[in-house]
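Hey all, sorry for the wall of text incoming. These are the two entities for the joint prediction.
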Amino acid sequence: MNDFVLQTFQLTKYYHKTPALDHLNLCVPKGCVYGLLGRNGSGKTTAIKLILGLLAPTAGRAEVFGHPSDNLPPSLRSRIGYITEGHHLERWMTIRELEHFQKAFYPDQWDRRFFAEMLDYFELSPKRKIKTLSNGQRAQVNLALTLAANPELLIMDDPMLGLDAAVRRQFLEGMVHLIQKEGRTILFSSHILSDVERVADRIAVIDKGVLRADCTLEEFRMQIRKYLFEFPQPNIPVDTLPGLIYSKRNQQMLEATVVKTPEEAIYEWARRHQAAVEPVPMSIEDQFIEFTGPKQARKLFSWEMPV
Amino acid sequence: MALWVQISPGSKEPLYVQIASQISRAIALGHLRPGDKLPPVRKLAEELVINPNTVARAYLELEQQGFVASKTGSGTFVLDPALQDNKDLAQLNLLGQRIDTLIVQGLNLGLTPEKLIEFFENRVRRFLSEQNKRSP
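and here's what came out:
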């Protein structure tokens, strides 16, 4: 037995001849909040659907609670909460009807009081029909329906897409509320990196179907670093800088981002090229963009620097 | 006791560093006094809407720096700076390195060494007078 709530083994999915997900190995430990990051079309949704058994893999496999994803029994499904982007709910039902419908899937653990409290907090009457709700209100109902089922594993595919700042914050509050309980696990994808920074313990970065980073958030913050160099001469041997992922230059100045390069190695390299060097702090968004972007920065909307 | 932590996610400083530096500043200014209890990890996490592990990480950082101590089961408390072993070499070295960075920046701004020392002295005095103003 291990303590992984969710595991994938060489999980692969092709659409025709295009790989959407390429040999993904992911382990989500119990009690962890895992942020799944990647640009649009990188394979996040495919990964989540494969994990939940909603898609069949081309190769490899996934397990949830130690059970194969392609054959999850209802008893295990009732321990999983799943929220997709868009928050599609039955339009013709009222909130109360939807609650009864949802409760049937989670008979032993439905928290009626919590659901009522959340509706109250959102100022939503249970008599409202889903089709009369705004996008944000539908998202709130979806969040209440999911959390009231008290899931051991919560999986959310870009749940905050298109929501205003207030509703986004309520989703984050819901996540923090859930993880305060013992042994709850969350896997979620998001494009809003400041939200990811708030709640994630670990992150996985998927790029073109391939897992490129899988580490704690703190490691990601600490191991992608930017430095500004100033050289005595304009011919800068950028490529010899260890761990380089991104660089920008202007005559004798070089701005370079490196991964997992010890600070001493940077200073040693600078000394060898008689360069002055200075660290430049980065936000998680800068780190993500430079980690997943093209190696040589070329902005789409840029103008020539006056020389 | 007065502690008001504010964070800005998505900025250049990691969240746990933001929290730890605000608390150590509150201790330095006397807003938090020896023996004061830090808010429980879960409570601060809920208040700031962040992962409780991030708050715990900030408290661990403060503990390693010798500003606070955690007692199992009862919480994390501010230590008396006067009673601390300030001769901890590693910490003094670290402080020295930070001061060095400031010296380089000051010289690059064109300040003379004398001006720099004067400037540094003034800042220390200003900080201490702020501390006195706020203390009851």
